[in-house]
O-antigen ligase-related domain-containing protein (Streptomyces fumanus), 328 residues
Amino acid sequence: MDVAGVLVLGSCAVWALVTAAARHGRPEGVLLAVLAVAAGYAVGRICGALLPVAAPGAAALAGAGLTVAVPHLAPGPRITDPLGHAGATAALLALSAGAACCAAWGSLAPAARCALWLLAAGIAATAAALGSAVGCVAAAGVLLCSLAAGRVRRRGPAVAGLGLAGALVTALPWAVAEGRLPKGPGAVVEDRLPAHRVGLWGDAVAMARAEAGLGVGPGRFGELSATAVRLSLPDGKPHSAPLQAAAEQGVVGVVLLGAAFCWVLYALSRSPRATPVALTAGVALTALAAFAAVGNALSFTAVSVGAGLLAGLATARPLRDETARRGA
C-alpha cells in the first residue's frame, strides 16, 4: 500500500513539473499540496502506531481549534467572493469530526469513548456557531455515518460505495458547466452556486478540451480565464480540483488525481484497524473530495495536511494489536 502511495504521489509531482516545463507554468501549488498530503500521511502512520486513540483525538481538537483561531478559514463576509474559505472550513471540520470518531472507536474505556463522541458532536456545534451550515451538516453526517459503521461487518462494499459517491460528485461540476443536468435539478444546483462559479467551470472545461494532452500549465488558469479576469478579487482557480487538473494538466492530471483518491480508499479497505475506524475515515475523506470537487478546499495547506493525517491514522498498525485488545 505504501509503495503504491509513493508511486501515485510521486507521479503527481513529476507530471506537474512536466506540464509546467512544457507550458511555462508554475507548479509550486501542486507540489506543496503533494508534500502536505505525504507529510500528513507519514505523521499519521507514526502517531497512529504509537497512540491509536490519543493521536486522532488530538488531531480533532487541533483541527477544530484551527478553524476558530485562523480567521481566513472561518466563514465571514468574504464568502460572497469565490475564494473558497467556506469550503475549507467545512472540509477541516469534517476531517476533525472524523478524527474524533476514529479515536472513539479505538478507545476501550467507556468514559473516554463517550467523551470523544461528545467531541465529535461539539465540532458540529462549533461549525454552527461559526455560521458554517455546510460544515455543520458535514460534521454531523460524518458522526452519524460513523455510528452506523459499527454495524458493518464487510468494509469492501462500503468502501466501493464511497468511491462511487466520490465519482458522482466529481462529475457534477462538469455536468453543470456543460448544461447536462436536467432542467429542474440543474436550476436548483445553479441557484445555490456563487454567480461566477459556473463561468469558471465553463472556462476550465473549454481549456481541457482545447489542451487535453498537457493542459495550459499549472497555475495559468487565472490568466487565461475570461471569467477570472473579470472578478474583483480573482484567485486564479476554477474552484473545482478535477476541473483545475483537467484544465492545467490535461487528462493525465485528472487520472492521477483520481488515482490518489482510489489509493486512499484501497488503503482503508486493507487497513489493520477496525472496520468502523476505516469506514469513518473514508466517509470524512469522501466529504473532503466532495468539497474539493465543487470548491477550493485543497488550496489550503491545513486541509491537505489534515487529509493525509487522517488517512495515515486510519491505516496505521498499532504496536499493540487492536483485535487482541478487544478480545482481552
